[in-house]
Structures
1.
Amino acid sequence: MSNSGFDLDLRTAEKEMDFVDGERVMLGVLDGTTPAAERIAAIEHGNVLVLAIDGDLNELAADLAPAVKQCGGNLVHFRKFLIISPPDIEIDTSEL
């Protein structure tokens, strides 16, 4: 169990979520090696991205963040992760 008291199993959580064909939660690393266009295509397809931040967030998300906002997507920086969702999936931060 982690220090927060939660044992987060994303694979199990993903299996329990209802997705339209092809939609999923995608785990990855934001390190500058994946083009912003590829990330945008993933959210336009209805996917949620959970990206571990490996480096300076402002620098790594310089191209990605404006493109996500332009297509109506949502971004939240939570701890060492950047969560990105398509326009129709709200990221609820009310418990933070």
2.
Amino acid sequence: MATSTHAHNESVTVKGARFRGEETKPSFKTTELVVYVLAVIGVLIASYTVGDGDANNGADYFAADKAWWYITLLTIGYMISRGLAKAGSRSSDVDPRTH
């Protein structure tokens, strides 16, 4: 007869354990967000610094409305990119802050 040294109240149920998985990494952990933010900053800086050149006629070659149009296009592209990423595979992220 074999005797067990473990207490009888120890029960581990693996069958009922489910892990909550995230579809993708959180957006702040991706290079997509970094590239998006840098592109927006680049557009804003370019719009601010590009003027009328040496003409001094007050014409602005890269006006604010063009800059915001490009930022809108960048935002749409970023949103499509995140949507496609979320439609893809699941992440094996173990960071407790994301649960």
